[in-house]
Amino acid sequence: MGFVLYIGRRLLAAVPVLFGTTLIVFFMIHLVPGDPAVTLLGTHATPQAVAALHAQMGLDQPVWRQYLDFLGRLLHGDLGHSFFYQSSVTSLILGRISATLWLILAGAIFAVLVSVPLAVWAASRRGGLADHVIRTVPLLGLGMPAFWLGIMLILLFALKLGLFPVSGYGTTFAQHVQGIILPGLTVALALTPILVRSLRTSMINVLGSDYITTARAKGIGAGRTIAGHALRNAAVSSVTVLGVNIAYLVGSTLVVERVFSLPGVGTQMIDAIFNRDFPVVQGVTMFFAVMVVAVNLLTDVAHAGLDPRVRLS
Amino acid sequence: MKALTLPGRSVPAAGTTPRPRRRSRRFNGPLLAGLILFGLLVLAAICAPLITKADPTAQDLTQALLPPGSRGHLLGTDRFGRDTLARLLYGARIDLRVGVLAVVSPFLIGTVLGLVSGWFGGWFDTLVMRIVDMVVAFPFFVLVIALVFALGPGTGSIYLAITLVGWVAYARIVRGEVLVAKNQEYALAARASGLPTWRILLRHLLPNVVLQAIVFSMSDIVLSILAIVTLGYLGLGVPPPTPDWGSMIQDGQQFMLTHWYLAALPGFAVVITGLALALIGDGLVERMNLR
Predict the structure, then answer these.
(1) Using the beta-carbon criterion (under 8 Å), do A154 and B150 form an inter-chain contact?
(2) Higher-scoring residue by pLDDT: B24, B57
């Protein structure tokens, strides 16, 4: 019961945040210097075209009225109409959503698979060679652009070794899986330096706690102590650490999709920027905020599932 | 009121404002290594015309795609015959300058807002923290890219976009520190002695809460350089032909099979910059004994 109540509370807390993100997305159009309609259509646009676009975008209305309209349409799942394609923004995003969701999922899974073992290894050999290497190498990764890492992975695994396709997503499920491995790895490795450092610290805390000492004193081997006692508690902190950094992971999919030509929402945003397709850019920005809020909720729920104390507080 | 305003030094010893703890060693390994590395990068950027005679934007199609080690072109040339070394060095000028400067205004705005909202609390604090929640709901790169698009091309837009998104981290960090510091003895003593609020905030609180913000600004510079390079890669950054590491990587990507170093070299430059700043950040943490 406490669990359901906790989820309910978290859902309620997400509402004002989502509400706030709509404000930012809405006011984006008002950051455009000068008259947005003229900027979008170009200086050679006829006054009629400008007036028509004003009416279409509701720019002839007072600002509060524009916002309420925007919000009202948003609540009905309507993000407006693309300037470039004969289609609604919502259906454009829905058409591209699967590649992005796959990439986020693959990235999160790879991130955990890579960073948790490294962090456990470093923490259990604290001060040793492995610890030093695992602490130093991520310093190189902190400033590594995700897109550059992707290009280097393509160079090594696709062009030299021929293990994966250079780019694209294919049409069948098997091709999807093959096409998502390198991009997923790129997203994960871009996050790994941050993850490993915080995980190592929390793992050291776990290994220093009394129940680990007790387990050791009972004569349980080091492997079983870590697997049976430390890992569940370390999992709690890894979920939290992942949750804190999830916005970074979600954001890096934008440019990684571009590197691997994945037909995702991020590629769509960049195409829309070059087409000066304002409603699509706004819609995708909103989509990314919703993704971050949703994944944050999921990590909170997972956290509560792993650690009963969270639900009760 | 003025009679009550005691100078900070005559406050009772138990409540004196602690100066940030200084270690006997001024520098430690990581800090020194980071400063030297970053210093060399800045020096290379400043002395670019002394290091190479080549013009980073001069095209010469007869000299296109030369390998590293060619005569007159130490690191080879790109598809327009432009010297890679010159483009790397002049690119550092753009990327390092914009990266460092882009952090200044978020640092100032965030620190002031965090200081004020943490100290006074109330409706102002609630307002600031609600705005922070809104901004952090967006992935950093997505919001920066969207804002640069809305504001139009150019370096000015990049500064403004990074400022609009970047201040929230400083506000959060400083506010958290103020919440802890304001109940410590020295802050209570400063209050009890009737010092004006601005003086308490600037002279007593700020020196003690700003350290964390300075440490964070090191990784924030890395983040803003990454943002500029990413914008350059996507073709949304500093307009061509001005050299920038991001657009160099984008150019080089097409020739990966035959000239892999064209895309690799500018990336290494970014990685080394990130390493230098990460070392400085780590060294500062160690030196100030924050951990």
Answers:
(1) no
(2) B57
Name the residue in chain B with its Cα closest to that of A266: B142
Structural domains counted in chain B = 1
Test A142 with B275 for CB contact under 8 angstroms.
yes
pTM above 0.90, yes or no: no
- Asked if A145 and B226 come within 8 Å (Cβ–Cβ), the reply is yes
Which residues span the domain enclosing B229? Answer: 86-290
Domain that holds residue A274: 99-312
- B150, A32: Cβ pair inside 8 Å? yes
Within a domain: residue A244?
yes
* Residues of A with Cβ-Cβ distance to B274 under 8 angstroms: 139-140, 142-144
**What pLDDT, on a 0 to 100 scale, did the predictor assign at position B266?**
92
- Read off the CATH number of the domain in which B279 is found: 1.10.3720.10
Average pLDDT of every residue of chain B: 84
Contact across the interface for A152 and B264, Cβ inside 8 Å: yes
pLDDT value for B20: 57
Asked if residue A90 belongs to a domain, the reply is: no
- Sign of the CA dihedral A12, A14, A16, A18? negative
Residue of B nearest to A142 (CA): B274
| Closest CA of chain A from B177, distance in Å | 19
* Percent of chain B with pLDDT strictly greater than 90: 42
